[in-house]
Write the structure tokens for this entry.
Amino acid sequence: MHRATQQFDRRADALADVLAFVDRFFAHIGRKPDEAVLFVFVAEELFTNMVKYNPDGPPTVSASMQEENGRCTLVMEDHSHTPFDLTQAPMVDIDRPINERKPGGLGIHLIRTMMDEVTYSFENGTSRTTVVKNMENSHV
Amino acid sequence: MFKIVKTSDKEFSLSGRLDAAEADNALPVFETINETVTLNCHDLAYVSSAGLGLLLATQIRLQKSGSGLRLTQLTPFVRNVLKFSGFDKMIEIVE
């Protein structure tokens, strides 16, 4: 099993550090950059939501990656007063015509569509989002 | 690192990753697009929801004048993002 954890400043300009963390992990486990891109996407969406919607939270958030037998897991943790369970957010109606499309929600929609598992927990002020993808069956 | 380069009168080449930070940087270039153009995405590895927002806003603006974006040479990941978001129904994709 491979595992890595890192703390990131809660700042928009720390996004590059978050994405580099994911890239490094996939390189460490011997996977190609185009295999990392799905998790890069998810990490960006989750991190930018943390920065945007919990700006007054603690100075850092954490990201953990784990890989075992081709099953990759990303866990993003934040501390907040109120939970936000992305698994309960409404999915975007992707069949709406362009002039009826409203901004927002697409990142969460895509995470829930493209990952094999998405779970959320909120305990003692810790907001934890876990996403899993079996890379051996990945067509994304 | 994301780059958008005008390669001809009606074509731009996109490369790298169009993430949230790069979408802000790319906005001024997209705002110069005022007619139908082709975006060659051969080297575009990634687009986030921020990048999708940029594409959507540009497409909505162009459609008001009967123009639009045309995307070509999509990488598998970008193609899937466009499909799962329904953008493939809103923006022309040229195979």
